[in-house]
Amino acid sequence: MIKAKAIKGIAKMPQGRKRATLFSLIQESLKLTGAEEKRFQKIVQTDPLYQEAKMLQSIEEVGYERGLEQGLKTTAKNLLKTGKLTKQEIAEVTGLKLSEVRELAKVLNLNNQTNPGDKKALH
Fold first, then answer.
1. Burial of 62 (0-12, 13-18, 19+ CB in 10 A)
2. Helix-strand-coil percent breakdown of the chain, rounded to 5?
3. 93-113 residues labelled b (16+ CB within 10 A) or e (exposed)
4. Digit-coded pLDDT (tens) for 77-106
5. Rounded to whole angstroms, how far apart are CA atoms 85 and 93?
């Protein structure tokens, strides 16, 4: 009963970011009955601000993933510069593919430099 009242209350709210955020919160955290889910989906499908909020959330997630990937590549570059780890070890530590670490080494012009454990990783 509380969930149904909450859904009705949200439907009556003026349009805006708060309303879209509440839609997202309900969708992600509450377990709705079949009838409540049906009513909620009808409201969501007709609310353009909800769609905008979901799009912004997707953009934020893509940005986060890109930032994480860039951070791992920066870490790999820094590790390559030290020469203390093999390319294979750097790949294992960062979670990057060995081919990505090799490409970063090429970009840094470190491909011809090797350290004792790197001979296997070069081939």
1. exposed
2. 80, 0, 20
3. ebebeeebbbebbeeeebeee
4. 999 999 999 999 999 999 999 999 999 999
5. 10
pLDDT in tens, 9-55: 655 555 566 666 666 666 666 777 888 888 877 877 777 777 777 78
Look at residues 66, 68, 67, 93 and name the one whose alpha carbon lies nearest to residue 79: 93
Residues 6+ apart with CB under 8 A from 34: none
94, amino acid identity: T
Which tokens hold the place of 110?
Answer: 């470190």
Token pair in block for residue 31: 């377990």
Alpha-carbon separation of residue 50 from 25, 43, 54, 83 (angstroms): 11, 9, 6, 50
- The residue type of 96 is L
8 A C-beta contact, residue 110 and residue 80: yes
